[in-house]
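## retry 2 of 3
previous attempt timed out at serialization; input unchanged, resubmitting
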Amino acid sequence: MDIPYRFMGVSTWLNQIRLYQNAAVGGNLDWCIVGAFEDYPDRANFEGVSEAFHLHARHEELFAKLQSTARVLLVNPRPFYQFSTNLMYNEREYRGIVHMLKERHIPFDTVILSALEDFASRLNDYDVIVLPDLPRAPGPKLRQALLATTASVIGTGHTLHEDPQLLEQLFGVRIREKIEPVAASYLLTEPKEVFRSFPARDWVFLHMDSYRLELTDADGYLPLVGAAPYGPPERAHGHVLTDDRMAAVKGGKNLYLPWMAGTLYYDLGYEDHKDIFCDLLDKVRPIKKPLTTDAPGCVDIFLHSVGRDEYLIQLINLSGFNGVTIAKPLPMENIHLTLTGKHPQTLELLTADGFENQPVTGDAVTLRCPGCYAGYRVTCK
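## retry succeeded, writing output
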């Protein structure tokens, strides 16, 4: 719970999820207690930790070969030194977009902002690059790479506020004044051929820092419905459809949102903000997903290449999450998953004793995740 409470661990299920998430992205497992096992007063996590470490040890060679299949790059604003106090960053915007992508089962890679300059030569490895509320001006190498990349670049929040020239070059916009007041303002989900998730909801609330845009070389979407006074019904009127557009698309490729889509979703959880983001993503660059599935959003799916025509599918079951409590997850059965353009030949479940063969019929494999984690090796032709 906190550093002073050294002799009681977190929920057994949260503990397992953390370990399996580390394994799922190729990280090292890490778990520690203060003291010795023999007289430690909290033994509740011992069994789950043992299971995770044994599974990882049995398949260590496989976990060491993970190669990303992601076509999306998401920049993490956290500085290299996580306790730095002289660098301000909005990690909630990043975390909200993490949730959006995971719940839509869109694989993505992350890179921390302080390493992005060295990563500049790899931008063309992706179809989409997301810059979540990153106001600072990039270095010259990254600046040129962003302008030259074949990937679609998406900026949200205050992104590139400190570099108005690059902002206009990339997104065809200039930042105007901050919207005041923003409370009681709305986004009009038009045109409907873009915002297909909103057949019956025309207005979505806008909140937090938001800015008016001047469109210099971009198409505008999401008209702003201006704020009206707050008060009893006879006074709460006067919403006006403005000429402002709260989404800009340059050349049908790059997208800019001058508001906090990820932060709103992370803080308040309205799927509307996720749906707006994903509808616009489909507009500028429909993602070539390496997988399609009917798994619910609470199942976190990782797909990696582990060899020639060989893949590792990993499921992490987050259905036990409820508010601030993480309890035993509900068993997930009959999850159907298709690897785009691939034809599975064999399917094997990872166990602490090795591999357990699973039936394969057709191109869609059927998976199950009764606990926190399940891993499957698939060979294809």
